[in-house]
Design goal:
- InterPro entries: ClpP/crotonase-like_dom_sf (IPR029045), Enoyl-CoA_hydra/iso (IPR001753), Enoyl-CoA_hydra_C (IPR014748), Enoyl-CoA_Hydratase/Isomerase (IPR051683).
- This is Enoyl-CoA hydratase.
- Belongs to the enoyl-CoA hydratase/isomerase family.
- GO terms for molecular function: catalytic activity.
- By secondary structure, the chain is of the alpha/beta class.
- It has two domains: about 5-195, Alpha-Beta Complex (2-enoyl-CoA Hydratase, Chain A, domain 1), CATH 3.90.226.10; about 200-250.
- It is built from eleven helices and ten strands.
- Strand 1 (about 5-10) and strand 2 form a beta hairpin.
- It is globular, with a radius of gyration of 19 Å.
- The relative contact order is 0.10.
Amino acid sequence: MANELLSERRKDVLWLTLNRPEVHNALNAAMTDALTTAIRAASGNHALRAVVITAAGDRSFCSGADLKESAGGMFLSRDGTNPIADVMRAIEGCDKPVIARINGRVLAGGLGLVAACDLAYAADHAEFGLPEVRVGLFPAMVAAKLLAKIPLSQLQEMAYLGAAINAADGERLGLVNRVVPSAELDGVVEDALARLRQNAPGAIAAGKAALLKMRDMPAGDRLAFAENVIATISGSNEAREGRLAFAEKRKPLWVE
């Protein structure tokens, strides 16, 4: 894997580190290709329970697309899709929870990565911004994900004015799950991972897929869809094991 992205297996979790701190971890072609490949490979790997995306350094999580590469095709890949959009699709398509560990400023396409993640935890010095209009661009792809995360009026202010919000506002708006001092960030992420390990991986995978589908369907169709989802999940081997473990007052087999 290219040096732009560091990959480390820690027990049952894949840690991916954006590794271009000298340019605020801007996304170039090598990094986006490596991210997409790594996340897709993690999906379906039964030895993994989660993926964590973080970044080198403590100043910037990700500043978005590397504008020095954009003229050479950073906004359009070989198959006609956008490389950053491909990463976001890989995150949402992954059958594992993908967690953003945010240790600095998040701008532009970097905010799209955060919005695509299932869970996000941030250090209290983090900031979130959409400065694209300052260079003649617009955060259209990022907005596609943020529309499901934050109020439209807040998104409009950020997108039209190139404005940024602080970590506390990001938590208040629901962009991140929790904000803590930098020294506590690793502990919060590890706590989330420990809690995930107590829960059925198949149920989480099915639930993640169902939540994303229900998010994008008309409200009136959601309940009928959910009926089918719960019927399928309740008949799974995991559900049978969960009920048996409950009756026998023991931990289910997926808990070490």
